[in-house]
Each structure stands twice: as C-alpha cells, then as structure tokens.
TrEMBL record:
Signal peptide (residue range): none
Protein name, entry field: Hydrolase
GO molecular function per UniProt: hydrolase activity
Organism: Streptomyces xanthochromogenes
Keyword Ligase listed: no
C-alpha cells in the first residue's frame, strides 16, 4: 500500500481541549463572576462528571432525557448545542447565562491547544506530497481553530459531521474526506483516538492508526509514527 493521503480526527488527535477548570474560569472571568475556591472546585468537578465540556470526558451517566440527543449530537449544530448545554444544566451554576457562555467558549481557538508534534507531522506530510484531511464528529466549524494556530494551510479538506448530517463511524463521512483529497480509500490512512468512531474508516478500505487520547503535555510525540507509516508506504 502506498499512502497518498492521511485523514486525522480533530479532538484528542491533533488538538486537545483545555481542562475543565480553565474552561470554567475563563468564562467566569469574562462574565465578571467570582466564586470562592470550594465552589469553583465543586462546579468544575460536577461539570466534568456531567461530560459538559465537548472534547473532554464523556458523562459518567447520561441523563435519560438526553440519551437520544447524545447518540446523534454531532449530526447538526443545533443538536450539539442542545446536548452539551443540557449536560451542563445538570450542574447548579450561579448564573443562568453560564450554560450558553460555556458552550460558546469551547468553540473558540483559545480553548484548544495543538499536541506538541501536530505542526511537525502535518508539515512533514506536506513535504512528502501527501494530502491531508480532517474528519471530525463535531457540531461547529473548527476551521478557525486551525487558522488561529497556523495549521490551516496544511489541510486540504475537512469532513465535519454537522455539515454532512452523518457522524463517524458512518463510512459516508470518510468517503467524503477521501473524495475531497481525490484519493481512493485504499491509499488513505485514518489517524484517530477512538477505536469505534475512527475505526469506521476500515470498512471503506482505509488503513487505520490509533493514538492515545491524553492531555497535550502527556503525549508529546504520539503522532510521529504517522510519518514513519507514510514513509514506509504502509
């Protein structure tokens, strides 16, 4: 197999969302709301347990009234917002505005950090003439995140679930990305952190490589094997 294109997942693969405490603190500061340390810690802990931060931990328990939304949350922007603000509302916060403000914060480039080797790997693939795509289950346009971090020029195509109305592991999303690269799936490698969602590319004939979903400072070189795989053509 000769690799002519590489598809990457976004969250947990190329970028990592900020920690829940930082996410909450940024929103509180912007809203001019001050909490004492114990209350801040409670809110952060309960938001994390609720799975309210997109790109963060999944809910410890999905509330029954959100089960259907959770299953299809990435197929539209409206469903994505309703799902995550609904999860956040399982937590008592001091101001009702915070639920929407928290959701809006996670969509900003400032809330995301590239993994330490993201830029080097994307640049290395580009130097080798290998096409690059991003395939993400997401409810909003992540292109500004790539632009803000100086990585958009490396990406040839984006296949975002909310724009196609389907989410991984549905093969249609991977097919759209391969078509965007102009490549046969048999010549494409999919890189992701979710064995179920990202592994769906295998049904289309893509090779698949997994990385660990870890904080950025704990995974400094998790993407580097992709360059070796591309160089070896397998």
């Amino acid at each position: 197999m000769t690799i002519k294109g590489v598809l990457f997942d976004f969250s947990g693969t190329l970028f990592r969302i900020e920690p829940v405490g930082d996410w909450l603190s940024a929103v509180l500061d912007a809203a001019g709301i001050t909490l004492d340390d114990s209350e801040l810690a409670r809110c952060a802990r309960e938001l994390e347990e609720a799975g309210a931060l997109p790109g963060g931990a999944n809910p410890l328990r999905t509330p029954e009234h959100l089960t259907e939304l959770w299953a299809e949350r990435d197929t539209s922007g409206e469903l994505h917002r309703r799902t995550y603000t609904g999860l956040a509302r399982e937590v008592a916060l001091p101001d009702d505005r915070l639920y929407d403000l928290l959701y809006d914060r996670h969509k900003t480039p400032a809330a995301w950090r590239p993994y330490p080797d993201t830029g080097a790997v994307l640049a290395g693939l580009r130097e080798r003439g290998i096409g690059i795509g991003v395939v993400s289950n997401i409810g909003w346009d992540l292109r500004p995140v790539f632009r803000e971090h100086g990585l958009d020029d490396f990406v040839d195509t984006y296949a975002l679930s909310f724009e196609h109305g389907v989410q991984k592991p549905d093969a249609r999303l991977f097919r759209a990305a391969c078509e965007g690269l102009g490549q046969d799936p048999a010549d494409v490698l999919m890189v992701g952190d979710d064995r179920r969602a990202d592994g769906g590319a295998a049904a289309l004939g893509c090779a698949v490589h997994f990385v660990d979903h870890l904080p950025a400072d704990r995974r400094p070189a998790g993407l580097l094997p992709v360059l070796a795989l591309a160089g070896e053509g397998r």
